[in-house]
Amino acid sequence: MRLYISSYSSDCACFKCQYDITLDQAYSSHGEVEMCVRLEEIIEICQATENSHFIWFARLLKRHLRGIYTFAKHGISTGKLEGINNKIKTERRKDYGYPDDE
User: Fold this and answer.
1) Quick one: CA dihedral 88, 91, 93, 95, positive or negative?
2) DSSP 64-100
3) Residue 85's Cα: distance from chain center in Å?
4) Number of H helices and number of E strands within the chain?
5) Considering only CA atoms, which of 1, 8, 6, 48 is closest in space to residue 23?
6) Residue 31 DSSP class
């Protein structure tokens, strides 16, 4: 996720450089601990900017840290399961219009 800072001050641009470098390091890290440390750094950088967009992203990361850490550790996600559940719900909604066999 890249944030565009066309209207930000020069201080925010400096934070964005730090943010980009740390985010790239976090995603390219191979260990769970290293990724956790990098993500915590990103949260601190975003909160230090006092910019609403960066603070929003820091809150988003905080809410999803457990899932990100789990993915880093195990390498699996719930994406397929959620996709199957969505298909089931869609089929149920479509079936409401069919008449009963009685």
Assistant:
1) negative
2) HHHHHHHHHHH---SHHHHHHHHHHHHHHHHHTTSPP
3) 21
4) 4, 0
5) 1
6) S
* Amino acid identity, position 65: L
Model confidence pLDDT, tens digit, residues 14-54: 666 766 777 777 777 767 788 888 888 888 888 888 889 88
CA terminus-to-terminus distance, the chain: 54
Concatenating the DSSP letter of every residue in 12-79 gives HHHHHHHHHHHHHHHHH--SHHHHHHHHHHHHHHHHHH--HHHHHHHHHHHHHHHHHHHHHHH---SH
